[in-house]
Amino acid sequence: MDYLSSFDISASGMTVEKLQMDIISLNLANARTTRTARGGTYKPLTLITKTIEPDFSEHINKTMTLQQYPRGVEVDEVVPMNVAEKLSYEPEHPDADKKGFVHYPGVDSTAEMINLIRATRAYEANVRALNAAKLMAQKALEIGS
Length: 145
Description:
alpha+beta; 49% helix; elongated
C-alpha cells in the first residue's frame, strides 16, 4: 500500500471521530432541553458509519493490476436514537404536563462520556498511524540521499 492511501485511511477515521465527538457534545448540551424549535423534546443523535467500498469498475481495475484499494470509513447517516424520555416530577416547571411531569430527552450522560473517551482515543490512534506513515515516508526518502 502506498503512503497516500494510509494517509487517506487515517484522515477518514479522524473525520468520522471528530463528527462523533461533535454529536456527543450536542447530545450532552441538550440533555436537559425540554422544548425544541420544532416542538417536543430533543432527540439524542447517533452516528452510523460504513466502510468505504470502491464501485465495481474501480474494484475490477484495481484487482486486475494487483493494486489494493485503500479502505477507510465514512458517515452513512446521523439518526435520532430510539430511547425513552426521562420523566421528572417538577410541577412548577413551565414545560410540565398536566400531571406535573417534565419530559427530558433520554440522554444517558454516562454512556455519552464513555463514547466521548472512546472517540477521543480512536482519533488519537488515527493521528499516531498518520504520523507513523509520514515518518516511514520520510525515512524512505532518506535512503536515496
